[in-house]
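The instructor's notes for this session suggest beginning with a concrete chain rather than abstract definitions. Hand out the sequence below and ask the class to guess, before any prediction is shown, which regions might be ordered.
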Amino acid sequence: MCGRVWWGGEVLSDEEELFSAVDALLEQAVRDPLPEPAERKRLREAAGLTQDQVAGALQTRREAVGNWEAGRTEPRPPKRAAYARLLEGLAARFPAPGAAGNTSTASAGPTATPAREAASQTSAPHTAPAPHTAPAPHTAPAPAAAPRPAATSRPASTSRRPGAKTATPGKTTAAVAVDPRFAHGPLAVIDVGADRKVVAYCTGGLVLDVPAKSIPALVDWTLQEAKLGQPKLSGPGKDADPLLVLTESALERYGLPTTLTEEERLAGRLPEGHKVIKQLARAEWKLTKRGFGPWARIYRPAKGSERACVQLCIPSWHALDSRHWGTAAQLPPAELARVLGAYASRVMTPCGSTAVTGLELMTALHPPTRASAPHADGTRHSEHNPGSLGKDPVDPAPCEAPDGHPLLADLPRFHIRGPGEKLLEEAYDWARPMTDAECTLRHLVGIDVNMAFAAGANGLIVGLGAPTHVKAPVFDPKLPGSWLVDLSHVDLSRVKVGKDMWADLDAGLLPSPFTPKGERPDGPAWYATPTVAYAVELGYDVAPIEAYVRYDNGRYLDAWYQRLRDAYLATMADLGVDADLAPADFLAAMDGYQERDPQLAIVVSAIKATVKGGLGKLRERPRGEGWRPGEPWRALARPTWRPDIRAAVISRTRINLHRKIVKHAAFTGQYPVAILSDCVVYAANGESPLDFLPYRDGKPLPGGFKLGINPGLVKHEGTQTVLWGEGVREQFDAPELNLARYIKDGTVTDADNGE
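After discussion, reveal the predicted structure:
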């Protein structure tokens, strides 16, 4: 490869032509005014319409509608006029909910007390407390935080460090209308003050008096008076149940242990004979199958559309895993309400671990059923919601089933399935010895892909239904499925890196894109669609032997990705890391960003864990339950138990990374030393990613690595010396020890970091 300019400047029209074009747009905007981006999305969801339906009516792409709703782009004529007409019609049918009702009388709700300068004031991104009643005798603690003027509606933005820009997603600061049913936010932290009074710390700095004397009474108060909960995320979905977080003092007050015994911890619940469980039974409240544990759900069977359900979170029972929630469990009540409230408003109300919440978010955005069109008598019935996974589970293809699955019950007991029997799409864990030339360099620099698996899910076509077995199929890169194909002929020493553009590479310094360990395949193996498509992209023909394909398919994870992306970008913007920073400014902003607001840094960690955990839950394995190989386990009963979707996301994530590595090698001659999941290590003479990432006039190599906070872009993971790397490998007598695992701080440990 040589002699080609890959990126450069643009040829612009003359000044007069530019001004004329701008004037035309301004005139059009006056003729066809549009509501704010958030309102566009609300109107569509209120009508139960999908982005695909809107795109079809306007003869545009679904991504364009998503961009309009996020405020990233604006529709142009003639689509703008049609879009404006649609939104105007929807606004007439679905007016915005009114502001929260006045709570100045005793009958309007529980007593509320404003928290003086509470840290939680600065973080309710979605709603604001309703006007308060007269202050109760107690006052809330006052953690150190900047006070905020009283408001009648919660602002859309969270706390900000001085000088930080407004969060990027949506590019709007308009206040979001408060649903009067949930005027006090999605959750409350229940605590007992020094005066022995029970109080509820809500989002936005609101503190409520709690009159309940028992857990059953607390549930009644929550549903009847507290005004807690969160509106549904999708038209046919359901509202989020209110979440109560019980501190240790609250546990003592309501007759619950502050910690679980070892037996209770292993069982994940209190014994059925516990007095509080008996109290609930006498009051005709029920518990889900997981019982009264760290994430207990208390409910009565629904009557029609009315739900009666409250979620409990008990931090001292390890409900908030420190690998994902950091020190959240040790925070004072007001600060814990701030952290969980920020997460709830930007992701969803937590309903279990970050993994459970990640999975539930998929369902909340694509509910399995919806109401049908009205019949002649005006009644409706429940029907399948297009684009969802439905309400019934489907069996995987045999190659997609993990070991021990009932589909494999007939295999010999100690049979080990090889690549020709088992789909093995996993993240990279690859390393190689350094070359002599690399050993002359001074540093090892690690870069990490932001939200890599979320980026891998974006725009990915996945199966929605059961697989169809096909013999000798013709490969279709747009058809999701699992393919048995021999890719051993793909030679990385010569590959396509662009249209009709080939590059000669040193294949010995590159991992294979087809295996997690980077080994070149030696025969037929099962691969997900993105992996096989990449072999074709590299310039090689493929001839599948057989396949399990899914003709019923769609972009099921797009809304999930967009929700988590926006949550991540908004929270990082609040920490001073904006999406439009220049490379050097981005690296500077990332340096120590967690210390600017440790509580919001916890939210960032939880958002990232929600991505990985949610995808992991798509192939959840047995968890005790007395399970034996060949028998079904509880997770198989979920329609969201879909190992094929997990495999497709991991496949695409790994391929995305390999594509960048190949582009980088073709242009710079530099090759990675180690890769672990989404972290890549290169040898360089300097300590910064800018010392080896090519930029020209501020623009990165097209298709290569780019510094930035958006999902799919990279950040600096860590830098160590080459001497450190060689020393560690010599110490452990492991020439191919994966240095990417330890590049962040140089500490070699086998501690579980939760990833």
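Then share the key points. The first strand starts at residue 112 and ends at 114. Residues 374 and 380 are 5 Å apart (CA to CA).
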